[in-house]
Amino acid sequence: MQCVFVQFRCRPGKAYQVADAIYDREVVSELYSTSGEYDLMAKVYVPQGEDVGRWLNDTLFDIPEIDRTLTTITFKAF
């Protein structure tokens, strides 16, 4: 599995609604509320062999009230 972190910027006042929708899809390992430019951060394990961008697009990025995302792909853990 490929571990990625995805940050979500939500429309004003919609972070809880987006968080609920993310959890309903049962595809994230961890989900946090964050300060700063983005509202939420999720740790996601993309199944082996899947195209990361397509998989994220098909499973998470169509949630209403998301304005922007930032995906960080991870490499070997130390």
TrEMBL record:
Organism: Phaeovulum vinaykumarii
Lineage: Bacteria, Pseudomonadati, Pseudomonadota, Alphaproteobacteria, Rhodobacterales
SUPFAM superfamilies linked: Dimeric alpha+beta barrel
UniProt protein name: Transcriptional regulator, AsnC family
Domain spans labelled Transcription regulator AsnC/Lrp ligand binding: 6-76
InterPro entries given in the database record: Dimeric_a/b-barrel, Tscrpt_reg_AsnC/Lrp_C
